[in-house]
Specification:
InterPro entries (chains A, B): DHFR-like_dom_sf (IPR024072), RibDG_C (IPR002734), Riboflavin_Biosynth_HTPR (IPR050765)
Distance between the termini of chain A: 14 Å
Largest interface: A-B, 29 and 29 residues
Radius of gyration of chain A: 16 Å
Mean pLDDT of chain A: 97
Low-confidence stretches of chain A: none
Order of helices and strands of chain A: EEHHEHEEEHEHEEEE
Number of domains of chain A: 1
CATH class of chain A: Alpha Beta
Oligomer: homodimer
Shape of chain A: globular
GO molecular function (chains A, B): 5-amino-6-(5-phosphoribosylamino)uracil reductase activity
GO biological process, one term (chains A, B): riboflavin biosynthetic process
Strand order of the largest sheet of chain A: 5-6-4-3-7-1-8-11-10
Helix content of chain A: 10-25%
Protein name (chains A, B): RibD domain-containing protein
Structural class of chain A: alpha/beta
Largest sheet of chain A: 9 strands, mixed
């Protein structure tokens, strides 16, 4: 059974998944790269990086994934819909290598890039988007890519099977929170926590099948 | 040099240190005992409890402490100032065994109970309260007891030397947050994280002395 999975989703101690304001120069606002330093220090990101618990989690990102769904805020800075040449942050060869479905109220034509990544644009509810992505993924899993607003929607709609969060020990103070409106979301999941020598704590929420 | 320390301060994943509404029947509101289950399962609380990392942290609560400062919301439910017979939640022999300074805008006479605990009531700023508590503690340390609002005030005033937090993997959704207004508070501290088999993660913030 194809599952929906979230990987390497990093939040601050106070629950922010991005700072503010977001722009073309600062995709995570005042957070800069601080939420993802842990990941950029692993072999997953850098061939000379670390090879311990942080890498073990990070490299699961692409393992058995057949499609991704991402929110409009992940695909580009505010206003990207007005720029017909915008093709995402990731250049000619994005690190997805599957179909990627971008949720936006202003869909455009699909964009095929190198390495197997094709961006499709959908104005759709979470469950409809998931049906489309599952079809594209075949027997493989669907990654829910974030950002925080769309992940909240998928969690609230009970559409997530596996959630890997990384709590970074900084207090961002402002930005976009993950947890708002998700009281009690832990019920129905097995939750594990493991801290890393790098200082971050990995949390996994795995759906309990009844 | 006497230090100011915080121990066993438990928060949810979304940063709430208490639920709502708080009352005489439900000191932590809808959170119930969920933020402190980890502690009640240790030898610190229960002689037949666990004796591992959770206990190692929990029992530091009283180690070398000569006085506590607590907020009005920790001492009693809303309106306790109108009840002349209210002597705290803890019965005849409270677990403090030192002078305890309760911050309130409506001070009353001191209350001496068994086991060395005396409650004093102060209408004072954090730094003034700390000066008074330090005097009472002699060479020993001062524990900052919480709740979250008064702890925020002490953190914002840069008066904390050691902060032990326990992140419990539940999403409370509502209550009183610890982190509000504390952007960047981690700078100036050494931060460590260690997860426990019980599922909680212990965080320590230790002031870096320059």
């Amino acid at each position: 059974m194809s599952r929906t999975r979230v990987h390497n989703f990093s939040i601050s101690l106070d629950g922010f998944a991005t700072g503010e304001p977001q722009s073309a120069e600062a995709p995570f606002g005042h957070a800069g790269q601080r939420l993802h330093t842990w990941m950029m220090a692993t072999r997953f990101w850098d061939p000379s990086g670390s090879d311990g618990v942080d890498h073990a989690f990070a490299q699961r990102h692409s393992d058995g994934i057949g499609a991704e769904i991402m929110g409009a805020h992940k695909f580009g800075p505010p206003g990207w819909q007005d720029d017909p040449d915008w093709t995402g942050w990731w250049g000619e060869n994005p690190p997805f290598h599957t179909p990627v479905f971008v949720l936006t109220h202003r869909p455009r034509s699909s964009i095929e890039l190198d390495g197997g990544t094709t961006f499709h644009f959908l104005d759709a509810s979470p469950d409809h988007a998931l049906a489309v992505a599952r079809e594209a993924a075949g027997d493989l899993d669907v990654r829910i890519g974030g950002g925080p607003s769309m992940l909240r929607d998928f969690l609230a709609a009970d559409l997530i099977d596996h959630l890997h969060l990384v709590v970074v020990p900084i207090v961002l103070g402002r930005g976009v929170r993950l947890w708002d409106g998700l009281e009690g979301i832990e019920s129905g999941f097995e939750v594990e926590s493991v801290s890393s020598p790098s200082g971050v704590t990995h949390l996994t929420f795995t759906r309990v099948r009844s």
